[in-house]
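agent: user wants the full assembly modeled, not chains individually. Plan: 1) parse entity lines 2) check alphabet per entity 3) run joint structure prediction 4) return tokens. Steps 1-2 passed, two entities, 727 residues total. Proceeding.
--- entities ---
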Amino acid sequence: MSLFESVWVIARRDFVASVFSRFFVLFLLAPLLLLGFMIFFNIATNAQDRTATQPVVAIVADSATAEALVRTRERLAANTSEQTFPTLRIVQPAENVPAQARNLLADVAGNYSAVLSGTLDRPVLTGPRGASDFVGKRMQLLVEESRRTAALDGARATPATLQLDRVVTEQAVGSLHNSRRALAQGAQGLIFMITLMLATLLLSTLVEEKSNKIIEVLAASVPLDAIFLGKLIAMLGISLVGLALWVGMLGIGLTLFFQLLSDFVSLPQIDPAVGWPVFVVLLLLYYTANFMLLGALFLGIGAQASNIREIQTISMPVTMLQLMVLLLAITAVGSTGGMLFWTAHIFPFSSPMSMIAMAAQSPSLWPHLLALAWQALWVFIIIRLGARMFHRTVMKSSSGGSIFSFRRKAAAKR
Amino acid sequence: MSAGLAIEAKGLFKSFDGKPAVRGIDIAVPEGAIYGILGPNGAGKTTTLRMLLGIIEPDAGKRSLLGRDRPLEAAREVGYLPEERGLYPAMSTKEAIAFMGALRGLPLETGRKRAEILLRENGLGDYVDKPIKSLSKGMAQTIQLFGTIVHKPRLIVLDEPFSGLDAINQGRLEHMIRDEAAAGTTIIFSTHVIHHAERLCERIAIIAAGQIRFEGLVSEARERLRPQVRLKTRASEGKWRAALPADARFQDGHWDFELPKSGVEPLLKALMDGGAGIEELSVERRGLHDAFVAIAGEEAAREMESAELGEAA
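--- prediction returned ---
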């Protein structure tokens, strides 16, 4: 039997077994779970912002001053956001205002960040100065705006409210840049997430085969290289099927959503710099490169483990390294040069994620040809290395040849 | 490789973590033979079979399998049942057998058809689509055995095939081995149970502490020991006593001793001329167990017996 035939037999078994397993259902639901988590996180953090982190300033002044400040705040907040300015709370002035200000700042129930006293012409702000002086700068703006309004009112020179004439365009460079940046980071996250999930599954199936002793049946029938490659290709196939299903479901969902609600919302314009067809092809190619690199590494190292606990011990540092690689790739988004930028694009394990970000942001195609050739070379090298590690250890671990065997030996001596 | 040999190995050596497991094994298995590798646990039987099959590489020595120096090149023509059985628990019995055939180059569809036939012919028709995890241990072992032969190999390698089987299934397995051998298939199996080797094999290798102690026909192993004589006489004393060897033992009214090298006729003549008054005389060839004790030593024999007893328990 040729190597290709052997790879096919192993890949087909693993593919069919995984696609018809509970794992695949979870795998398909992963984006929904992630989306749900993000929505929940967003809601939770927003709610926390509004209730807990908004600074409160006590206005200890005559009623005319206090009301002028409150009106100015309401007017400005209406055109920006509630979070732009501190919350103002009017407090009747006592006889000794400086002492009253100190008491208010010590009042736990009041939860004040500062106290504004005096008049619009002689305002006094009592309270700590933070690093950004958020409260001080905003209160300065409110006082100046209130004074300007009062002066214009006094001179009866208040201008009429003006509405902008809007010329609506489909795109602007600034917003396009932002949407492409978001697309770049989204694509990086997608590649990272799927690779992480499947590389871990790859290890679990290998350990299952070792503990079920199936590996010996396989090793007696086909070359170990075929087992190694078959497993990698099966997992790649599973992830590509998953991706196709996700993209299909997302496409159908968005089309239905925007058709039904076309009168109320319009499809946001997200256009990768290389165009959608090329971007999708590059996404698949970079994902494949990333998976083959990490999958081969995981399989090579994982062959040395003989149970799930050892897998977990191995996975943790590898996952941390993967996160560091992701962070390196994220730094490349939006930048156009520098050491980190070049490192992220050249380092084999971060190159696929950095290059997909480039595809979203830059229309040049030749860097992709270069990068794909570079990554193909590294895929070949890592697969050779991984297969060699796999070959050396996969049939030995049950007899104490694993990297953990020194622990077993030490335990045996004790 | 010598003509007519399915397996030939010379000077195989393997060590793990610096400890030698197999030390200079020589084996020659003729085509069409049922060949047994006999030895206690830890003697090096599994390591030897793994090296012969190319699962692990020997540190030194040469081996050839069905005429090929690279054993995996002969994989299509070989069936292997490992000592530690391995099947995918979620697979159906039919798929598991077909998959094992596919690993040996048998088209999946053909494998499925043959699997169904094998299952039905052996009274397991109701289990065709049952997952492996729902089967008993013995039944799962039978499924793996079917997977070993589904592609109709020229050579079948079985590592401790009787281990874990009840008496009925052991009998079925013996029957199957004989059927395959009758069809011209070469069979090599390892065992620590002497009577399986004695009943099935023409040739055996006795292995202990990683070394071959005997390699040849079963009859040759047995012939290494002199036949045992049992004698009952009417006379208790007389000239005839001189015909008995010095180490003859008298127990329960019988004399037991090894047949002298001169043979039966001179012994009979001496007994009759000496006035022994022979009441009973039997000459029995010694069994493989006695041959094993003589070849591998009593310690190895005790280990074999305790492993067998442990398994039966």
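agent: reporting back. Chain A touches chain B at residues 1, 5-6, 9, 13, 17, 21, 209, 212-223, 395-396, 399-401, 405 (CB under 8 Å). Confidence is low (pLDDT under 50) at residues 397-414 of chain A.
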